[in-house]
Design brief:
The chain has 689 residues and is mainly alpha-helical. It has helices at residues 19-32, 54-64, 76-92, 107-111, 145-159, 165-169, 171-179, 184-196, 202-211, 215-218, 226-234, 239-248, 258-265, 269-281, 296-315, 321-354, 367-390, 394-410, 414-431, 434-450, 454-470, 474-490, 494-511, 514-530, 534-551, 554-570, 574-590, 595-608, 614-631, 634-651, 654-670, 674-687, and strands at residues 8-13, 38-43, 97-104, 121-126, 136-140, 255-257, 286-288, 291-293. A five-stranded parallel β-sheet has the order 2-3-4-1-5, sandwiched between helices. Strands 6-8-7 form a three-stranded antiparallel β-sheet. The radius of gyration is 33 Å and the shape is elongated.
């Protein structure tokens, strides 16, 4: 705050974020530094039931400036004029004052308190951003994790200099700070609770908060309470704003987009924009990149408001029709949002398999747009499965994991797929939905295998095989056997894998399903390769590629041709392998498919096409790297980066080689692939001068 700045400053932020403390600290430092001759402070109590009116505030300030009560006019406007006149007199006498107006609820509450001259300044705190004051605006955020832990440590040691509980707590202190949402008020209350109970450890208090039915109930030291602080902000909301605030707690994920808010609230877009803007201005919502979220403790508070109305209605505790209507409103809003996510996810997922020829062209213009939506909503979509199961919306809970399957596989979000599909398995079993349960177990087996959890994957696939067999669903039984065989091969049980795949092939041939025949044949080729039977491997892969070509499935045709190329290479038929690789590249050029598949095809061709120039090989590998990044395929990307590094060694460019090998080693280490990382690190060591 220097003489060339504006005469007004506003510190705004969430209740309990430390606005008053910051203002007082700044004011004290500014006076001590000589920027001001003195300061005036007034608490406007803007969020109390009886806030200080502008006229009352002016009276208090005039008295503080030495004006006798008899000389203070009755009208607020006359008091404001006298106030500014007195301030001018002070300035003429060389006195420069800082006026601190704390806890303002609106611009109108402080407008008459503005000095009117840059020779004095006013510092305002508010839970609302006050954009109409033409002031410098500072929105105060919660503390960083490090600062939050430091606050806890300082508070305890100020009460008792030898208190080392925070220092000795290790990760427990960070956990406690996180459970407080890094909110200074909550942190101070937690510190007070620890001070009141000297034998309690930081970890014990953190455990209490983590397991409490209500964190807000625990964050109360008898004098201060987080819930009471939030109450003051909530009570000032107009009814429609308060309703939207409660509804926002029903969103299953950490944030929500504008379209979803409109669906949730079932109100017109212009009205939603206005209300969201007001809730952000009140610091009850945050907005980043056009997505709205709540601070953790604010969300707890809003959730409790929802539960209070629903529980009261459920118990019929003398509640009127408005309470029953509120419960119905919440149920309908939640169902609308879940249906919106499922329907839109289905439209987006259609683009993953049909590209531009989506069955829902009005939803998304192209695949990129569909993927962008899925990326932005992934956490909400997976959380919706849990939410749907919790409220008994079985249709969504069973359907959404199937809808999300292709997307989660595409991008390698295997943990997400395992989580949502596990929920579907349990729910389908509970409700007796046998076909849904069998399909869920099969998908779970695939996800577990992709995550290299082979023992669990075998059990999941066996469960799917048994369920489909019990229903006499031969086609799906064959699909489940195909998945089981693949996991057995990955587990090293090669003979069993081949036997299972042969059984699956017989079933699919009897069913006449060419797509599944091709899939099994490709797996049989891989089994034969592992068992050293190159001729059988070539035959199976070529038949798979022929079937895929007949079906117009260019992506899987290219994959099957790559399988055939490896088999030919293993049998010593290098020229034939290269010719098949060229066919694979041609098929891949016609495909609109999973970028992970594209990367694998390009990498295979770069490895097997020996007549490529070094620059052509590197170009193929760079394309494979880009495809890996689009697919979020970190494991495959690490192998591609390693291959690029080795190619650059051959080219004599050790700088490029080292850069790519270093990235590969880090990725292998992050993935827990120690052996692969060690091989790359060993190669890097050889490059050192």
């Amino acid at each position: 705050m220097t003489s060339d700045t504006d005469d007004r400053n506003v510190i705004a932020g969430l209740a309990g974020v430390g606005k008053t403390a910051l203002a007082l600290a700044c004011g004290h430092a500014a006076v001590k530094a000589g920027w001001f001759s003195g300061s005036l402070f007034i608490d406007l109590r803007g969020y109390d039931e009886s806030p200080i009116r502008p006229g009352q505030a002016l009276e208090a300030l005039l008295r503080a400036l030495g004006v006798e009560s008899a000389g203070i006019p009755a009208a607020a406007e006359e008091r404001a004029a006298l106030y500014r006149s007195v301030l001018e007199d002070c300035a003429d006498q060389g006195q420069r004052l800082l006026i601190m107006a704390d806890n303002a609820a609106s611009a109108d509450q402080v407008r008459l308190l503005l000095p009117g001259s840059r020779r004095h300044q006013v510092l305002i705190t508010s839970r609302h951003t006050l954009p109409t004051l033409n002031a410098r605006l500072v929105d105060l955020a919660v503390l960083s994790p490090e600062a939050a832990v430091a606050l806890l440590r300082h508070a305890l040691q100020r009460a008792n200099p030898v208190d080392r509980r925070v220092l000795e707590a290790g990760d427990g202190a960070e956990e406690l700070a996180g459970l407080c949402g890094y909110l200074p008020l909550a942190l101070h209350i937690s510190a007070a609770l620890l001070i009141l109970e000297p034998d309690q450890t930081v970890g014990e208090l953190a455990a209490e908060l983590a397991t409490a039915r209500s964190r807000l109930s625990l964050l109360d030291d008898g004098e201060r309470a987080v819930r009471a602080s939030f109450d003051l902000s909530y009570r000032r909301l107009p009814p429609d704003h308060a309703e939207l605030f409660r509804l926002m707690a029903l969103s299953p994920g950490p944030d929500i987009g504008l379209e979803a808010v409109v669906v949730l609230a079932a109100r017109p877009l212009p009205a939603i924009r206005t209300m969201l803007r007001a809730l952000v201005q009140a610091h009850l919502l945050d907005c980043v990149n056009r997505r709205w979220s709540m601070h953790d403790l604010v969300r707890d508070y809003a959730t409790e408001l929802v539960h209070e109305t629903q529980q009261a209605a459920a118990h019929g505790a003398g509640q009127d029709e408005a309470t029953d209507a509120a419960e119905l409103l919440h149920t309908q809003a939640c169902n609308r949002l879940l249906e919106h996510y499922a329907t839109t996810a289905l439209a987006a997922s259609a683009h993953l398999t049909t590209g531009a020829c989506s069955s829902a062209p009005d939803e998304f213009a192209n695949q990129d747009e569909a993927l962008a939506w899925l990326d932005s909503e992934r956490v909400n979509l997976t959380a919706s499965v849990t939410a749907a199961a919790a409220i008994g919306h079985q249709g969504i809970a069973l359907r959404l994991p199937v809808i999300l399957y292709d997307y989660l596989i595409w991008h390698g979000y295997f943990d997400d797929l395992i989580a949502v599909t596990t929920i579907a398995c349990g729910l389908a079993h509970q409700t007796g939905a046998l076909a849904a349960e069998a399909g869920a177990w099969n998908n779970l087996g695939i996800a577990l295998a992709e995550a290299s959890r082979y023992e669990e994957a075998v059990l999941a696939h066996r469960r799917a095989v048994d369920l489909f067999a019990s229903m006499d669903n031969h086609n799906e039984h064959g699909k489940a056997l195909n998945g089981l065989g693949s996991v057995l091969r990955d587990s090293g049980e090669l003979a069993d894998a081949r036997q299972i795949h042969q059984e699956a092939l017989a079933i699919q041939r009897a069913c006449g399903d060419l797509q599944e025949q091709a899939a099994v044949l490709n797996n049989l080729s891989l089994d034969h390769q592992e068992l050293g039977n190159a001729t059988a491997a070539c035959t199976a892969a070529e038949e798979a590629a022929s079937l895929y070509q007949q079906l117009g499935d260019a992506t899987n045709e290219a994959k099957a041709l790559c399988t055939a190329a490896f088999a030919l290479q293993a049998s010593g038929q290098s020229k034939e392998a290269q010719a098949v690789c060229e066919r694979a590249i041609e098929a891949a050029s016609r495909a609109v498919g999973n970028p992970r598949d594209e990367a694998a095809i390009l990498m295979t061709c770069a490895e097997l096409l020996t007549d490529l120039t070094l620059q052509q090989r590197i170009a193929y590998l760079v394309q494979a790297q880009a495809a890996c990044e689009r697919a979020n395929a970190h494991d495959l990307c690490a192998h591609v980066l390693s291959a690029i590094g080795r190619a650059w060694i051959t080219a004599g460019d050790t700088r490029q080689a080292a850069a790519h090998l270093t990235r590969a080693a880090r990725m292998f280490e992050d993935l827990g692939l120690a052996s692969e990382a060690a091989d790359v690190r060993e190669l890097l060591a050889l490059l050192q001068p």
